[in-house]
């Protein structure tokens, strides 16, 4: 068995293990984004979810760099995520410098400026409803192999299940409630990033690394750590 | 529903009512507009007081004020649960056995007054928690996807209206001046976190100050937030205990007579 095959199996086992009641959604998506980068050999991955306004919001990313946030926000007007979200189909551009500007006149130059050469987006679908998209970025041009795309879609499906907790959701309200919860948790994390950045005179990206590191090393939920940082319950954080 | 259409419809309904009274958008206008738009019997906003206790503030619709007060007197009900759980609570049938078990005094009281469903939504963004929006209906049953999205959008609008009331932001009835919070919200919330530390206040209050600053300087909230996160703009309490802003990277104290109109350097 190749290293990749083994890592794929290990990854799915790892993810399945975390799918228990009352688990940490944001931490899970964070882990998933990291694994996607490793297994698909891309350079960055972001998970965006739709809210009740129809806006796509970044809720997790492999790197907490501001550039990924920018690129996600832009994609509310145009871009692979918006296309994947609207069509429910995977979208790719293997070389952003070839016809990128024609297709996405704002997003393509911004993505290239951020150092990316190729982008892909996989829809996060639950039956007919698309709740978001998984965004993949590469610094090199070239298409993703079919197996990689299939693997990526499988991981996007795992992400969807991870958020919605079950495959067969009968009531739309339950879906909305769980999406709201994930989105609101993310807002709390952003607030905590700001609090830490100001307290420690560091960047918001470094602040996130500290939050995540503390959550992982203390086996806590990211949302809880964020809440405790904001209300002052936690003042000392473990190293990232 | 696209992002534009829902937000526009919600704010359009709120502003129409405000305009009819020649007033700024108030909590009551949000409740009235929500009631009409989702076909409710009535709506109410309860807010978190200084002690952390919930108090009913404004209600529209028959029996709604009474039932709001009952919830908080009893410490029982969907609205109370929504506040404790920090998530929406959708009670689709208050006459049902399950509702009677969960809210043994409140549920029958509501059903007896002809209000069979209650949908409670936090009016909050992360740690910035302002209260709960309760939507009452006569008929039992699900809210439905469209009305649910609409109610959530009204909860968003309520947050803005309440924060603006606190910050004395008189955005008036010009819809283009009302910068809705969802816009570039990651940066807005990072800025709120930073400002909360700079001023030694809670995150809700920090949002109030950010909006008030943006309004006073006729700038978009998203731009002000970007400046705060990039550390081009700091908020600092001045010696008289009022807030002041300074620009640049240094910890410069503003001169004693400065006010919100102090020109800032840079962007």
3D architecture notes:
The complex is a heterodimer of chains A (240) and B (267). With 240 residues, chain A is an alpha+beta fold. Chain A contains ten helices and five strands, in the order ααββααβααββαααα. Chain A has a five-stranded antiparallel beta sheet, sandwiched between helices. Chain A is globular and about 50 Å long. Chain B is an alpha+beta fold and 267 residues long. In chain B, the strands form two sheets. In chain B, strands 2-1-5-4-3 form a five-stranded antiparallel beta sheet, with helices on both faces. In chain B, strands 6-7 form a two-stranded antiparallel sheet. The A-B interface holds A 51-55, 57-58, 69, 73, 76, 171-173, 176-177, 180-181, 184-199, 204, 226-227, 230-231 and B 1-3, 6-7, 86-88, 90, 122, 124-128, 142-145, 148-149, 152-153, 156, 182, 184-187, 189-198, 203, 229.
Going by CATH, the homologous superfamily of the largest domain in chain A would be GAF domain
Helix/strand-derived category of chain A reads alpha+beta
Task: Tell me the fraction of residues in β-strands of chain A, as a range.
Answer: 5-15%
What is the H/E order of chain B?
Answer: HHEEHHEHHEEHHHHEE
- What are the segments of chain B in which pLDDT stays under 50 over at least 5 consecutive residues? 248-267
| Chain pair with largest interface | A-B, 38 and 41 residues
Structural class by SSE content of chain B: alpha+beta
Evaluate the radius of gyration of chain B.
20 Å
Largest sheet of chain A: 5 strands, antiparallel
The number of E-state strands of chain A comes to 5
| Average predicted local confidence, pLDDT of chain B | 83
Helix count of chain A equals 10
Overall 3D form of chain B = globular
Order of strands across the widest beta sheet of chain A? 2-1-5-4-3
Helix fraction of chain A by DSSP (H/I, runs of at least 4): 40-55%
List the strand order in the largest sheet of chain B: 2-1-5-4-3
Mean pLDDT of chain A: 86
Count of individual beta strands of chain B: 7
Rounded to the nearest angstrom, the radius of gyration of chain A is 17 Å
Low-confidence stretches of chain A: none
